[in-house]
Amino acid sequence: WPNLNQWPTNQLAVRQAIDMAINRTVIGTEGESGLESPLTNASGITLPTFKAWLAPSVASMTVPASGSATQAESILANAGYKKNSAGYFALNGKEVSVTIVDPASYTDYAQDGALIAQELKAAGINATFDGTTVNAWNADMASGNFQLAVHWSSQGITPYYLYDTWLDDTLIAGGQGDFEHLKNPAIQADLQKLNGDKTVAQQTADLAPIEQYVAQKLPVIPTTTAADWFEY
User: Fold this and answer.
1) How far apart are CA 158 and CA 5, in angstroms?
2) For the whole prediction, is pTM greater than 0.90?
């Protein structure tokens, strides 16, 4: 989750570079013990689970599962960012520096964050991982006092639950979602319409603009599928 109200994650080019630099395969195999698969569609749609809801307009909008530091660097360079004397990208003298924060006791997320920091550094982004306490992390996520964090979304039988947690600004006040603090009236209206849909055909049509928005604007940066950590 990138903070949309803080430099540098409020910059689309930076979010695009982060998206491209992340090695989702390594996160899934090392950080998540091989139990979570890479999400390579930029919309965040989980395949094959939610294939029926994948809009044709975003089907080809993918990122490599192993990431690409070279392509991430190209994104920043094409947007006018230049490397400083320390080897990190900067814009008008302002360095692209990010801190990834997650609880140290969430050992999978802590490893994910440390791995992502390494991957971002390889792409010219000055990234560090900060392992904090669960209480401090929950408070910071709810208030928006962070730059970048690994955090789950909600699960459900359709993608509505995923996108609602990501994008619904009514969840900000209670710290239940939309941690990036997106406030987009068009997306809010799309979510409300989607919530009333009864058929997969209606849901697929109404999901299309939401999927396109996530894929193009990256208010969140999907990484892997989410496992249910239970046995029955």
Assistant:
1) 29
2) yes
